[in-house]
TrEMBL record:
A cellular component annotation (GO) from this entry: condensed nuclear chromosome
PROSITE patterns: RECA_2
A biological process from GO: reciprocal meiotic recombination
Leader peptide range in chain numbering: none
KW ATP-binding (keyword) present: yes
Protein name: Unnamed protein product
Organism of origin: Phytophthora fragariaefolia
Keywords: ATP-binding, Nucleotide-binding
Length: 165
């Protein structure tokens, strides 16, 4: 479990009170625009690097950004709150920007290869569905979008189970 020990924000305290974010599984965050989903992802990129006794996962983070919301300076600010060196934290975050759903799927395959070589405690896809909605718009493409999204989810599940994509 990844936790937010020592963090005073009620939002993160609520996650700790239910046990944190389970590792080795898929956790979907959803909600209205500007409700803190990306902030939570940034927070997790830092806390996953903490030792287990501090609520972390002792590993790296992999961040696939589909909407251009990743902010390295945010990670550095969060790292300082935990007494960590911001540059070292950034060195332990593999970042990629996906530009379409096909590219997003390719990045997931690359993530699998990276995870075979190094210890990653966390993989974030922010947002998993946005590019599929953009690439497959309209009722005529609904079936194709659902099929591709189902394939993506299956690959993601395999990745969380430690299987190669």
């Amino acid at each position: 479990m990844l936790k937010f020990l020592g963090f005073t924000d009620d939002f993160f305290f609520a996650f700790d009170s239910i046990g944190g974010i389970e590792t080795g599984s898929i956790t979907e965050l959803f909600g209205e625009f500007r409700t803190g989903k990306t902030q939570l992802c940034h927070q997790l990129c830092v806390t996953c690097q903490l030792p287990v006794d501090r609520g972390g996962g002792e590993g790296k983070a992999l961040y696939i950004d589909t909407e251009g919301t990743f902010r390295p300076q945010r990670l550095q600010a969060i790292a300082e709150r935990y007494g960590l060196d911001g540059d070292s934290v950034l060195d332990n975050v593999a970042f990629a920007r996906a530009y379409n759903s096909e590219h997003q799927m390719q990045l997931l395959v690359q993530a699998s290869a990276m995870m075979a070589e190094s210890r990653f405690a966390l993989v974030i896809v922010d947002s998993a569905t946005a590019l599929f909605r953009t690439d497959y718009s309209g009722r005529g493409e609904l079936a194709a979008r659902q099929q591709e999204l189902a394939k993506y989810v299956a690959w993601t599940e395999g990745l969380s189970a430690g299987e190669a994509c």
